Amino acid sequence: MNRVFVPSLDLVPRVAAGETAAIARLMARAESGSEEVRAALGEVYRGAGRAHLIGVTGPPGSGKSTLVGRLIGRLRALDRRVAVVAVDPSSPYSGGAILGDRLRMNAHSEDPGVFIRSLATGGAGGGLSRAALDLGDILDVAGFDAVIFETVGVGQDEVDVARASHTTIVVSAPGLGDGIQAIKAGILEVADVHVVSKADRPDAAATLADLAIMLDRQPARPDGWRVPALGVSSVAGDGLDTLVETLDRHRTAFAGPAGEARRAGIAAFRIARTADTLLRERFATLPPDDAERRVAARGLDPYAAAARRVRAFMGEDDV
Ligand SMILES: Nc1nc2c(ncn2[C@@H]2O[C@H](COP(=O)(O)OP(=O)(O)OP(=O)(O)O)[C@@H](O)[C@H]2O)c(=O)[nH]1
Ligand SMILES: [Mg+2]
After folding, report:
1. Whole-angstrom Cα distance, residue 93 to residue 109?
2. 126 and 33 in contact (C-beta within 8 Å)?
3. Is 175 a pocket residue for ligand 1 (Cβ < 6 Å)?
4. How far is 202 from 122, CA to CA, in rounded Å?
5. Distance from the alpha carbon of residue 140 to the mean position of ligand 2, in angstroms
6. CA-wise closest residue to 39 among 282, 47, 266, 268
7. Residue 248 Cα to ligand 2 middle (Å)
């Protein structure tokens, strides 16, 4: 049976009323990024701003999903509604990750105060972060108090999602390799909070100490926030209270004057990513010309051909 198409703008009040079907539908449209959904997403953005957006990133297997599962439990105990967007890179090697994450978070699957959604891919060139952050706005408007983005800290786009949150947690597993791995991937400096996971393991203390030394060597941040390194065991449940307290403290700091530059940075990032999406889409719909043939024959170079295409839509009002 074909359902009547409900315009995205009409879904917005239903999302704001917390209607799960409307939330899922608008999220699917936001992910696909159709032109029809843009005005609705604009309205959603303007209505959002209450939720705490928390990015959780770190190397594969560092314990992010288990930690997020535990965090959901703690936040629910405080009567907060929690949504999770698990961002999974489109790599075929990560095919099992989503199922695994679902299983780990399954304890909450019957709870209406918890919403979990996996985002597979948003296409090339920043589409993933654009889509993830749009989904965050939808969940924000839907009344979730916290929206957690879990991303593997490998690709730039994934790290960017975490960075564009209000509070970024970088999770490292104990052991020499992981600390170094985190720095290599360039995710050390995006952390507002460092978590050394699996603190029940005997080698966790050494990793925590290494991290503390590294953090001491970092120059003071302009916003005055001192980045803590916390040991957390999702298995034993240790360190979770401190983590929740720290998240709340950072959220308060972020909301005040000290967070102004960060908020502006996130806004700039979102404008840039959305512009990327619009330009790519618009570019793809340009009528074909003879450029491909001429570039292939080396009668025209890619720069001249690209400049010609860019000129073809510059000056147009309607992107
Ligand atoms: N000992 C111990 N093991 C843990 C803890 N937390 C997670 N693990 C184990 O670490 C492994 C990876 O945990 P995940 O939570 O799937 O890690 P992840 O970072 O989400 O992994 P990807 O999403 O695949 O990158 C699993 O085998 C967990 O059981 C902990 O607190 N202590
Ligand atoms: Mg995971």
Report:
1. 26
2. no
3. no
4. 40
5. 22
6. 47
7. 23
Question: Where does the pLDDT of residue 69 fall: very low under 50, low under 70, confident under 90, or very high at 90 and above?
Answer: very high
Of the candidates 135, 229, 222, the one whose C-alpha atom is nearest the C-alpha of residue 179 is 229
Token code pair at residue 214:
């590294």
Give 81's DSSP letter.
Answer: -
Q: Which of 3-12, 135-144, 255-264, 284-293 has the highest mean pLDDT?
A: 135-144
Total-model pTM: 0.88
Please name the amino acid found at residue 200. Answer: D
CA–CA gap between residue 150 and residue 55 (Å, rounded)? 6
* Three-class secondary structure assignment of 89-158: CCCHHHCCHHHHHHHHHHHHCCCCCEEEEEECCCCCCCHHHHHHHHHHHHHHHCCCCEEEEEEECCCHHH
Task: Give the span between the Cα atoms of 215 and 228, in whole angstroms.
Answer: 8
- Beta-bridge partners for 196: 172, 231
Say which ligand is closest to the CA of 158: 1
Give the least confident one: 91-95, 150-154, 174-178, 257-261.
91-95
Polymer length of the chain: 319
The SS3 of residue 230 is strand
| pLDDT score of 140 more than 80 | yes
